[in-house]
Amino acid sequence: MNPAPRRTLAIIGAGPKAVAVAAKAAELQGMGVDVPDVVAIERNTVAANWQAVGGWTDGQHRLGTSPEKDVGFPYRSSLVPRRNAELDERMTRHSWQSYLIASAQFAEWVDRGRPAPTHWGWSRYLRWVADRVGMSLITGEVERISVDGQRWALVTGGQTVHADGVMITGPGQAQRSILPHDPRVLSIAQFWQRAARNELIVAERVAVIGGGETAASMLNELFRHRVSTITVISPQVTLFTRGESFFENTLFSDPTDWSSLTMAERRDALARTDRGVFSARVQDALLADDRIRHLRGRVAHAVALEERIRLTLSTNRGGERLETVHGFDLVIDGSGADSMWFLPLFSQDARDLLELGLRRPLTGDALQESIGHDLAVCGVEPKLFLPGLAGLTQGPGFPNLSCLGLLSDRVLGSRYPDAAPDDSIRSTRRSDEHQPVR
């Protein structure tokens, strides 16, 4: 009898989540544990979104999460009975501290008070881990995801990658904006491109759309530019500060009790700690700058008129919808990542498969509410892992950097269906034939 074929997990994006899963899989394979081969598909480079090339930063701003929440955090593995301590010890080889020691930076980092690294510094750490574990990487952009028998088929360039499971990561494209062809409206990518070139913005009235960390990073950058007023536009009643005490942080690193909360309680916790909130560090900077203003509302319409960008804001006040118009010299669309950016990639047969598993139309709410313990969409085979949508059902740490080690446990511990006969699966290159990261 032929041995069962090795399974393949394809990850779209080569950021922290992909690196964490690849590192955990490499250590498990080193322990003789059967886990899928991991291959990442990335259009730029490892950790691109933490560098200027990714369009989400200029690389010079500080990481909002402690770097000690690295690819193995919280180091509480539960995949291998009686050997989990060994697995955690193996993962410490890829920790933030190990990276600093290997690069002769540890003593200086401690002496400086353990500062948060820049985004560029964080990307260097992730690339170091990816290189150490020989993460398989395909350079290219996924153009289509379809179903081929009992596997996914991902088309990228002239190559088709077949996988038993797909994990989708990343915030999507940073190039979108409400008026994409007007130079007075900047997308996230356009803003950071200018920052990376040290081009100062000179304007009287600037608007930043968005109340989350993406917008917060932009405000942090705008402080040094020559602007008279900066208006933050968000649907929240004010600019809330992210909870960063022990009790809030525990929700991210240990979601054991998350499932015992009602959906209303979970949504409330997410609103207070993760979505549409600024870090305490950014809020302190805002308090010291009297140019900052806040406007509550959602942008319903945008038009260029009389040498200004006119934004129509819609708000709900007292049960009535109110619309107001405001003019700005420059608008920066920092409304944040699109958690559903990947949907256009799915072919019709893949969409049909998802709707069949969901038993309802394919929407963002339907996907969020269907994410199971392994961070995959319940009822859908082959496996589709969506950690970016797992906050509501599994805990607020999974969409971000707060529990990468736990994320990798969940994904690699997933149970796959029995393998199909060899003749029902079109052959493809084994992931160990892909070029490792260098």
Characterise this structure.
By secondary structure, this protein is of the alpha/beta class. The protein has two domains: 8-172 and 338-433, FAD/NAD(P)-binding domain (3-Layer(bba) Sandwich), CATH 3.50.50; 185-240 and 276-333, 3-Layer(bba) Sandwich (FAD/NAD(P)-binding domain). The protein is 29% helix and 22% strand. Helix 1 runs parallel beside helix 5 (119-132) and helix 1 packs across helix 14. It is globular and about 65 Å long. The protein starts with 7 loop residues before the first strand and ends in a 26-residue tail after the last helix. The relative contact order is 0.17.
Provide keyphrases for this structure:
single chain; 438 residues; alpha/beta; FAD/NAD(P)-binding domain; 2 domains; five-stranded parallel sheet; 14 helices; globular; L-lysine N6-monooxygenase MbtG
Q: What is the second-level CATH architecture of the largest domain?
A: 3-Layer(bba) Sandwich
Strand order of the largest sheet: 3-2-1-7-16
- Given helix and strand content, the structural type is alpha/beta
Question: What is the molecular shape?
Answer: globular
Low-confidence stretches: 420-435
Proportion of strand residues: 15-25%
Describe, in short, the structure shown.
The protein is an alpha/beta fold and 438 residues long. It has helices at 16-30, 84-91, 96-102, 106-111, 119-132, 188-196, 213-222, 246-253, 263-273, 280-287, 348-358, 364-370, 391-394, 404-412, and strands spanning 8-12, 37-42, 136-139, 142-148, 151-156, 159-163, 165-168, 185-186, 202-209, 226-234, 292-296, 298-305, 308-317, 320-328, 330-333, 383-385. Strands 3-2-1-7-16 form a 5-stranded parallel β-sheet, covered by helices on one side. Strands 8-15-9-10-11 form a 5-stranded parallel β-sheet. The chain has a 3-stranded antiparallel β-sheet with strand order 4-5-6.
